[in-house]
Amino acid sequence: MTDHATPPPAPANAPVPGKGADPVLEALAAPVAEPFAAAEDPATLAEQEARRTRRRKAAVRWSGAVLVFALAGTGSALAVTAPDRTDLPGLATASDGRYTFAPLTLPPLPAGQEAPDDKGKSPHHADLRYLLLPAPKEAGGSLTPPVFPAPTAAAPSGSPTASPSAPASPAPSDSASAGASASAAGSAFGQWVPCDAIADEQQDPVKMRSVLLEHACRAATVREWTASDGTRTQIRLLRFGSVRESWGAFADVRSKGGPKAAPSTKGTPHDDWDALDGSSLTLVESTTAGTKGAPTARVAYLSAADVVAVITMTNPAGVPTAPFRQVVTLQGELLG
């Protein structure tokens, strides 16, 4: 008979085969966790605090740098955009010769009178002397707009509005110039001159006097100046009794006349000019070129309702296009 070893008895708390472990026993057998973690090392805590301090300081430094750059950019933008372009070194546009004028101011009209329309069919009621373009800064003119006196319905009693049929002035060649010199750059208003004085400035005074007589020139006023570039400007305004008479004079003056200061002229196109509302324009220029290549004389004939303007600019070195165009345009705006 074979002896078999008898297995030792199972412990009382051993799980029964085929059955799940007793949860109570498992809980008792598990290691007990400590209720509170052990305190960290003081050196580690100090390092962590130093690291947080460095991060805060870095954030403050970067925020300050961003703020400084933002303020610097804003200041630079204001410094560039606030001043005029011409006041910034390196950005100033080279001058093309245009003049500096005071803001244009139209004179007041007599009570009950209206300004000319943009079709050029209604006459001017303002004092003709106040419709002259003032002298620019480059000729000693003031940049302050003139203060016009109260308007009156009648022309000034002392105005020499002699008709073309009156005898020629004692010093015909100097009549208009004398009036112009009296209305030099510093004067706000032009001077009255006889219509004959305008005729005497032409290459054929007899023919021009006949034209002004035929179309009944009522009054004339003049202004002259010489700018710092050496260009001489002469502006003559002639008033007629009606728009029809003025248009006839305009056609004859531009075709039959010619200032002594601008001999040997030819017509020149002006299609690219800005439109002058209520005005008609004819341009001629000298066939002689100056040292700068521009014509030595340029003349503009301008018709605006009952007024005809003759603008003559001369310069032995050549009259630049820009100031000539500027003067003619501004004078047209005052008359339009």
Overall form: elongated
Number of helices: 7
Helix share bin:
25-40%
Q: Total number of β-strand segments? A: 7
Q: Please state the average pLDDT score.
A: 79
Structural class: alpha+beta
Q: Secondary-structure element sequence?
A: HHHEHHEEHEEEEH
- Strand order, sheet with most strands: 1-2-3-7-6-5-4
- CA-based gyration radius: 47 Å
- CA distance, first residue to last residue: 148 Å
Estimate what percentage of residues fall within beta strands.
5-15%
Major sheet: 7 strands, antiparallel
Describe this structure in words.
Keywords: Membrane, Transmembrane, Transmembrane helix. It is built from seven helices and seven strands, in the order αααβααββαββββα. Among the domains are: 64-94; 128-150 and 158-335, no CATH class. A hairpin with a 5-residue loop joins strand 2 and strand 3 (232-240). Helix 5 (205-214) runs antiparallel to helix 6 (243-256). It has helices at residues 23-29, 42-81, 172-182, 195-199, 205-214, 243-256, 321-335, and strands spanning 191-193, 217-226, 232-240, 265-267, 280-286, 297-304, 307-314.
